[in-house]
Every structure is written in structure tokens, then in C-alpha cells.
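Table S2 (continued). Query chain:
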Amino acid sequence: MTTVRQAGFTLMEVMVALAMVGLLSSRAVYTHAVQQKKARRTEVVVGLDGLEQAQRAYFLEHGVFASNFDELNFGIDGGTRINANTHRAQRYTYVLTQPWGEKSYYVIATGQIDNDGFPDAVVLETGRP
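Corresponding output:
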């Protein structure tokens, strides 16, 4: 009697291969989410950096900081002006105030970039007493 061996994979081999594919794909999804979050944070870093530079230039010219975005002639590409003190960009809303007088300013940028149900906020302040 001759034994005929069938070609193909055993159930165990298929299960191991599927487990490895699952692990690799879950790692790829996590890495992609982290990179997306970093890219979205770039908007706020660039926006606040530009705002800080505009405020410094305004201060050098006028001796005080600007109290609103109109005085700075400041905007972010793709953004819209809500009012003189509020500017909405793609993912963040920037609010400029002067709670401690004209020798200071306070900017808070809020947005929802990681869909976790909690707003993300970044603060820039200068001249706080």
C-alpha cells in the first residue's frame, strides 16, 4: 500500500501566517495614526511661531503688542477670520487676548486632532506679570 501525500498547508500553518499578518498590520495602523497626529500638530506649531514673529515685529515698531489679528495683518493659509480676535485654521482655532495689558498677549489654540473626545490646546503667552 502506497501513501499518497496531499499538497497544501495545514490548518496550523495557515493560523500562524494569519497571526503574523495581523500583528504586522496592527503595528502599521498604529504607526500611521501616530504620524498623522504629528503632522496635524505641525499646523499649530507653524501658526504660533508665525504669530510670535508677527507680535515681535509689531512690538518693535509700536512699543506694545497687538491686541487683535487685524492689527497684525495675520492669517493662516486656508483659515478664516471669525472676528478680530479669533482665527480658525484647518484644525485649530486661535484666540488672541491681552488679559494683562498691552505689554503682554495670550494666544490659545484649540482643536480636535486625535478624535479622543477631548480638545487639544496649546498656549502661547508673553509678558505675564
